[in-house]
């Protein structure tokens, strides 16, 4: 069976995601299986997902995916490189193709750029460029240019992720073949485009209680209709409490805090009155806002640099179809897969419970009760099975 992987967040699932699934089926036929490695309740921007992971996984399966697996929170809150590496590691166990959207969608060009970034000559050039005070993205582009490489593939957000997917495939010797498709529309567009909506625009509509339904397929619309909405602003005081009560050692242990950035965040956290004020004071042209947002979310969740770098030894299943069940059965021969709500006493599972309890503090309708992780349900076709 042809098996195509997608690394995603579906935050939330919208018409652009439906187009990707439709394109895969048009290319490989309805008999192919589509497997998604999806961020859980915290996403790569360093934010809480707007809608709970179980509902987003359900929407994906109802819209054509066959199996949705959870990308561990330590992968979801990683840099683009760590995010891609985590997704490729999971999907390589069961997929022969990796499909992703990209502004350029030039497979050969993306692979050439990935190979250059993995070459022995790149790191010293990157260090030199970083030494001039450039931000990481700018330094990376400059280093590639010095190698005689085109850097056009690192200008747009989807292209950047596409290159990281290719890097992960190459470095892990993954059996997956890259299959980029053109991603129309603007990734960061705040105004909703009915043809090619951005997740940013759909989230803005949901948070402002405006009509968002024209931006998502009917299958997802019905799932999201009455779903609790989550936002960073709803949990801001909880984050501020955490930042104000952290020790110096806890700040120093944070990911993304190199070059004294952790110390700057610590000082600002002890005098700022809002997240925007704190992050505005810490931000500079050298450090992207997304990096700071991820750093703050890791602080809130208690995730250290060491924890972020640990490899999770299992993959959690969120939803599947009968076809997805067949893929999962085969994959279980070489990996460990746990049902939603199934927990042992492994360290990362304690972290999952902890993050699940804290996610409820971001609900805009008021805090949700703790303990939800243990009540998760796997969605299977039109049935909901409770995990015993």
The percent of residues in helical segments reads 40-55%
Low-pLDDT stretches are: 382-388
Share of β-strand residues: 5-15%
| Alpha-beta content class | alpha/beta
Reading the helices and strands in chain order gives EHEEEHEHHEHHHHEHHHHHHHHEHEHEE
Radius of gyration: 20 Å
The best one-word shape is globular
Tell me about the largest β-sheet.
9 strands, mixed
Span between N and C termini?
31 Å
Mean pLDDT: 92
Number of strands: 11
How many helix segments? 18
Structural features:
alpha/beta, 18 helices, 388 residues, 9-stranded mixed beta sheet, two-stranded antiparallel sheet, 13% strand, globular
Walk me through what this model shows:
- This protein has 18 helices and 11 strands.
- The protein is an alpha/beta fold.
- It has a domain of 76 residues.
- The strands form 2 sheets. Strands 1, 2, 5, 6, 7, 8, 9, 10 and 11 form a 9-stranded mixed beta sheet that branches. A two-stranded antiparallel ribbon has the order 3-4.
- Strand 8, helix 17 and strand 9 form a beta-alpha-beta unit.
- The chain is globular, with a radius of gyration of 20 Å.
């Amino acid at each position: 069976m042809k098996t195509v992987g997608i690394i995603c967040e579906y935050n939330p699932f919208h018409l652009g995601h439906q187009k990707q699934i439709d394109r895969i089926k048009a290319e490989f036929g309805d008999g192919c299986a589509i497997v998604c490695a999806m961020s859980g309740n915290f996403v790569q921007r360093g934010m809480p997902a707007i809608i709970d992971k179980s509902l987003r996984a359900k929407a994906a399966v109802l819209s054509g995916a066959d199996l949705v697996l959870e990308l561990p929170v330590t992968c979801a809150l990683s840099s683009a490189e760590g995010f891609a590496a985590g997704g490729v590691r999971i999907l390589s166990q069961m997929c022969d193709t990796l499909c992703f959207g990209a502004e350029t969608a030039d497979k050969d060009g993306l692979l050439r750029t990935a190979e250059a970034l993995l070459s022995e000559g790149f790191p010293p050039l990157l260090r030199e460029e970083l030494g001039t005070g450039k931000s990481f993205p700018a330094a990376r582009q400059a280093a590639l240019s010095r190698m005689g490489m085109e850097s056009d593939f690192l200008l747009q957000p989807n292209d950047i992720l596409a290159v990281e997917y290719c890097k992960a495939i190459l470095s892990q010797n993954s059996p997956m073949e890259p299959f980029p498709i053109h991603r129309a529309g603007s990734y960061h567009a705040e105004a909703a485009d009915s043809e090619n909506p951005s997740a940013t625009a759909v989230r803005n509509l949901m948070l402002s209680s405006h009509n968002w339904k024209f931006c998502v397929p009917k299958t997802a619309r019905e799932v999201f209709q009455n779903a609790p909405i989550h936002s960073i602003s709803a949990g801001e005081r909880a984050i501020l409490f955490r930042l104000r009560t952290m020790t110096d050692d806890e700040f120093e242990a944070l990911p993304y805090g190199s070059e004294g950035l952790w110390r700057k965040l610590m000082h600002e956290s002890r005098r700022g009155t809002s997240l925007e004020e704190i992050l505005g004071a810490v931000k500079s042209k050298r450090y992207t806002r997304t990096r700071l947002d991820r750093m703050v979310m890791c602080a809130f969740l208690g995730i250290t640099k060491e924890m972020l770098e640990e490899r999770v030894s299992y993959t959690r299943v969120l939803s599947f179809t009968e076809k997805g069940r067949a893929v999962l059965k085969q994959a279980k021969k070489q990996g460990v897969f746990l049902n939603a709500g199934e927990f042992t006493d492994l360290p990362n599972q304690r972290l999952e419970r902890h993050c699940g309890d804290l996610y409820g503090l971001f609900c805009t309708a008021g805090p949700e009760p703790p303990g939800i992780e243990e009540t998760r349900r796997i969605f299977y076709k039109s049935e909901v099975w409770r995990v015993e």
